[in-house]
Amino acid sequence: MSRYILAIDQGTTSTRCIVFDHSANIITADQKEHLQIFPKPGWVEHDPIEIWNRTLDVISSALRKADLTAQDIAAVGITNQRETTVVWNRTTGKPYYNAIVWQDMRTDTYCGQLAADGGQDRLREKTGLPLATYFSGPKIHWLLENIPGLRADAEKGEAVFGNIDTWLIWNLTGGTRGGILVTDVSNASRTLLMDLQTLQWDEDILALMNIPRKMLPAISASSKVYGFAVQPLEGVPVAGDLGDQQAAIFGQTCFEPGEAKNTYGTGCFMLMNTGTTPVPSKSGLLTTLGYKIGEQKAVYCLEGSIAIAGALVQ
């Protein structure tokens, strides 16, 4: 009988694999850093292929250290750096461009253009978010406008978008051989494209940013079986997906409204559980999805973010 849970933590500077037993004891782990790419001042990129290869490396290494095989793993879950944007071809599996990282500032002018009509908060009522370079939607728009041939492929459904969670799940479940294109509500809520109430992509915002609906993943719960992995985790259910800060508030068991956590990593992030109703902030906080377990109601959070914390020390 499978005894362990395997977690993939794909962060801004490294990828980790940790295997837990039923009592949440760590059985084995491995970690590898990846390259930070700075093409221009204010631009930050990662190589999605390198991230996927690092993911395969840490899974294989962690299993090898504890003499485990896929048969010992009951399920795999993913937590990921949020907002970092990948667009790839579903037939070839190749990215059209490097991943544009959450810290990247290249969409500043475009966000200013959107804010010229209705202000920085014109999308906040629907999305809980201000117009900012932080989020995935403007990054997708930049890619569509600047990468030759991408828009035509996106309109045909050949080019697809995902934050890092979607990229990893698609590859884990087969990639070009039937990979599942999915994200969870916590990651979708960081795109500026999802309606907080319906938990679906908002057609009006997609039209505003000129983003084809065909390129977007399905939005799902944070905990359910999305599909089954191929090697090196052949047959293991891929059954969890949470953005890193939402995974932290869940992992710290902040299950009651009013409970909060603070995390010090690459950046510093405070999240507070606000229950099953989204709460608008009057103080500049973000209204975001916390998590959604299966068919249960979604849980919302308020979030405050400092982009650089541990990264400054590093």
Element layout with pairings:
Layout: E1 4-10, E2 14-20, E3 26-33, E4 45-46, H1 48-65, E5 73-80, E6 85-89, E7 99-100, H2 108-115, H3 124-127, H4 136-146, H5 150-156, E8 159-163, H6 164-172, E9 182-184, H7 185-188, H8 203-209, E10 218-220, E11 223-228, E12 237-243, H9 244-251, E13 260-264, E14 268-275, E15 286-291, E16 299-306, H10 310-313
Write up what this structure looks like:
- The protein has 10 helices and 16 strands.
- The chain is globular.
- 25% of the residues lie in helices and 29% in strands.
- The longest helix has 18 residues, at 48-65.
- Strands 3-2-1-5-12-11 form a 6-stranded mixed β-sheet. It has a 4-stranded antiparallel β-sheet with strand order 13-14-16-15. It has a two-stranded antiparallel sheet with strand order 4-7.
- It has helices at 48-65, 108-115, 124-127, 136-146, 150-156, 164-172, 185-188, 203-209, 244-251, 310-313; strands at residues 4-10, 14-20, 26-33, 45-46, 73-80, 85-89, 99-100, 159-163, 182-184, 218-220, 223-228, 237-243, 260-264, 268-275, 286-291, 299-306.
- By secondary structure, it is of the alpha+beta class.
Structural class: alpha+beta
Please tell me how large the radius of gyration is.
18 Å
Q: Which residue ranges are poorly predicted, with pLDDT under 50 across at least 5 consecutive positions?
A: none
Overall average residue pLDDT:
94
Biggest β-sheet description? 6 strands, mixed
* Strand residue content: 25-35%
Oligomer: single chain
Number of helices: 10
Count the strands? 16
N-end to C-end Cα span: 42 Å
**Strand order, largest beta sheet:** 3-2-1-5-12-11
- Summarize the amount of helix as a percent range: 25-40%
